[in-house]
Amino acid sequence: MSLILAFSCLHLATPDIAEYLHGAAEYPLDELVRLAYKADIVISLGDFSEPLYCEPEQLRLLFKDFITGLASNSKQLVMLNGNHEKYGHPYSEWFPTAYHGDSFEKDGYKFVHGHQGYPNVASRSDRNEYVKTIRDHFSQSNTIYGHTHEPMVGAGFMDVGSVTYSRTVGWCKDGNLSIERL
């Protein structure tokens, strides 16, 4: 079995956009690169950046050291699509040797972004109900996902939270799931 590092919702953006959208302009990028070095597989579960607000080339130049470090420190890199990726981003150019797709399966787990495949929620205005609906959908399904920004390990699932908001990542080793704070 592999040692898998999964993270979600990095939401890379220029400092002004990051401050506006997330209330902070700093990301724990060095820590993420350090953790990637330990893992056999590194999986971005989506929402890697803010393509609606930032030009891809601008982000590539701004975060060049991070992109290079993540790519070179990852034995195997997987870049999955989140709801922000629907606006388009050249991840295949940034990470040409990575696997790119909507889902990935390894060691009996399916890895996805949490917005994919959950039942329709009548109103997203009730955040607690929205998160509960997503968790109920993935419970007992051997799925590791992001999107809610709120980490949790449950029976047969793990919500890794968000690098930017909860400052968390998830680990999967020998069927054991855990959350690590950055």
- Uncertain regions spanning at least 5 consecutive residues: none
What is the quaternary state of this protein?
Answer: single chain
Largest sheet: 6 strands, mixed
Count of helix runs: 6
Strand order of the largest sheet: 4-3-2-1-10-11
Q: Summarize the helix and strand pattern as letters.
A: EHHEHHEHEEEHEEEEE
Count of DSSP E strands? 11
For the record, give the distance between the C-alpha atoms at the N and C termini, rounded to a whole number.
24 Å
Fraction in beta strands: 25-35%
Helix content: 25-40%
What is the 3D shape? Answer: globular
Report the C-alpha radius of gyration, rounded: 15 Å
Structural class: alpha/beta
Task: Describe the structure using short key phrases.
182 residues; alpha/beta; six-stranded mixed sheet; five-stranded mixed sheet; 6 helices; 28% helix; globular
Structure description:
This protein has 182 residues and is α/β, with parallel strands linked by helices. 28% of the residues lie in helices and 26% in strands. It contains six helices and eleven strands. The chain has a six-stranded mixed β-sheet with strand order 4-3-2-1-10-11, with helices on one face. Strands 5-6-7-9-8 form a five-stranded mixed β-sheet, with no helix packed on it. Helix 2 packs parallel to helix 4. It is globular, with a radius of gyration of 15 Å.
